[in-house]
Design brief:
A hairpin with a 4-residue loop joins strand 1 and strand 2. The longest helix is centred in the middle third of the chain and has 10 residues. The protein is an alpha+beta fold. The protein contains two helices and two strands. The N terminus is likely disordered. The protein is about 30% helix and about 10% strand.
Length: about 60
């Protein structure tokens, strides 16, 4: 039996959550197909499988 890990998410800390200057608001930059978008809208961001924690210091650590 395979257990699927559900990811907990908060869009504001996600790597794909970016500011769009044209729209003048923050948006999810992940390209979802129609089925994935419907699933996201039903379940909400708490179960987003694409969530990745954005760590701004991760890049700095690689430069050292």
């Amino acid at each position: 039996m395979e257990i699927k890990k559900e990811t907990q998410a908060n869009c504001e800390t996600c790597e794909f959550y970016r500011y769009d200057e044209e729209l003048d608001l923050y948006v999810c930059d992940m390209n979802l197909d129609e089925d994935e978008m419907a699933d996201y809208l039903v379940k909400g961001s708490a179960r987003c499988v694409y969530y990745r924690f954005y760590d701004e210091y991760k890049t700095v650590q690689k430069q050292n």
